[in-house]
Specification:
This protein is of the alpha/beta class and 398 residues long. The chain contains 16 helices and 18 strands. Strands 3-2-1-4-7-9-8-10-11 form a nine-stranded mixed β-sheet. β1, α7 and β2 form a beta-alpha-beta unit.
């Protein structure tokens, strides 16, 4: 639950010093102790410390800036990270941006670095206040903050915007939802309204949303971005633009690493039409694609783009004799390849990282069955080869 109003006492120097000095402690411990301040409760102190802990990696600029006011845990968890928000700012069109689901204001802050005018609309008054306060602390002066329902605000305005951005809520009545039509606002039924006010709509959706299914619900999709950080898909971004003649949307696989984006774009129809006539034995190097490529369904085109061979139609591992250092994902040097039957008979590994792909047993099941402790530098990849044999690849990261 958000505060009824901002407790400005939290921003007093002595309170901020307390939060800074106790951020290494468990917030739960702070919450049950008596607060040293008459105007700031133990719960509020715990919430600020918890928020600061989360911001250290997710929002480093917020973490490093004195005077930031942190929201309750759920609002911070649902916000974009600095890394993903900065990437989104590269997608906006024009000089004016309307963020209809403003939230904590992370996206609006990064939009303000690219656009001359940004409007942040947020239904929850307290969250709107927090976002406004933090923007002032961070020196973002070109963001207007409006406490309103975003869709009603749009319906009552005749203003047009170069870009409209939405991040629909995926938690309704306390339950997570994943279909576009179940989120709030319901973008599929609101597309005509959105296009009346902008020629560029950017939509953020849950990573679990099925891309092909969503493409049947949304109109005028020009681009889809599958965004990953540290091999985890964080966001799906949809760019909608009016088109007189509909064209097939481009799917962009984006891997963010140290503020650098590695990308690959393709059409789903091209991927579908490509036929792989040959699959390969395991060669000197083994490749596991980044989660963005796997989520996007880029399984065959990857062989052409990076000059690697696939092990099996349903085993999404690739191999080559020479190292392909630009491959988007984890790269391994192969030490040994055995059949699973031989591995079972002569297993000597006591500690290894286990990966299971297109294999009857999961990684935890294999770990338990063969009594292998997790960790170390050794990797054991359990999969099927192109002869449909169960094999075990012993390898180490390059």
């Amino acid at each position: 639950m958000l505060y009824n109003q901002l407790n400005k006492s939290i921003l007093h120097t002595e309170v901020q010093e307390f939060i800074q000095g106790h951020q290494h402690l468990d917030p739960a411990e702070i919450a049950i102790k008596k607060s040293p301040f008459t105007e700031v409760s133990s719960r509020e102190l715990a919430e600020q410390i918890s928020g600061k802990k989360t911001a250290e990696k997710k929002l480093p600029l917020w973490y490093q800036t004195p005077g930031i006011y942190y929201p309750p845990k759920l609002a911070l968890e649902q916000s974009s990270s600095s890394e993903t928000a900065a990437f989104k700012s590269t997608l906006i069109h024009g000089e004016s941006v309307l963020d209809l689901t403003g939230g904590l204001g992370i996206d609006a802050f990064y939009f303000s670095k690219k656009a001359g005018r940004v409007c942040h609309v947020e239904l929850q008054a307290e969250l709107s206040q927090i976002a406004s306060h933090n923007a002032q602390v961070l020196g973002a002066k070109n963001i207007a903050f409006i406490h309103a329902d975003g869709i009603e605000y749009l319906r009552n305005k005749r203003t047009n915007w170069d870009t409209i951005y939405l991040d629909p809520s995926r938690r309704i009545a306390g339950q997570k939802v994943f279909k576009l039509s179940e989120c709030e606002p319901n973008v599929p039924v609101l597309q005509d309204l959105l296009f009346q006010h902008s020629s560029c709509i950017i939509l953020k959706t849950a990573p679990l949303l099925d891309i092909k299914s969503a493409l049947t619900e949304l109109k005028q999709v020009k681009d889809v971005y599958v965004l990953s950080v540290q091999n985890e898909v964080k966001e799906l971004l949809w760019v909608l633009r009016p088109q007189k003649t509909l064209t097939e949307p481009l799917i962009h696989c984006v891997r963010l690493s140290n503020k650098v984006a590695q990308t690959f774009k393709f059409n789903l129809s091209t991927e579908k039409q490509l036929e792989l006539n040959e699959y390969s034995d395991v060669l000197s190097f083994l490749y596991e694609p980044d989660s963005a490529w796997l989520k996007a369904g880029c399984f065959k085109l990857i062989t052409q783009e990076y000059q690697v061979n696939k092990l099996n139609q349903h085993t999404h591992f690739y191999t080559s004799e020479e190292l392909k250092s630009d491959f988007p994902g984890r790269v391994f040097k192969v030490d040994e390849v055995r059949t699973y039957k031989d591995f079972t008979r002569s297993k000597v590994e006591e500690k290894a990282n286990i990966i299971s792909r297109n294999f009857p047993l999961s990684a935890p099941e294999l770990q338990k069955k063969h009594r292998i402790k997790d960790g170390g530098e050794q990797y054991l990849v359990f999969c099927r080869n192109h002869h449909e044999e169960l094999i075990v690849i012993k390898a180490r990261r390059c």
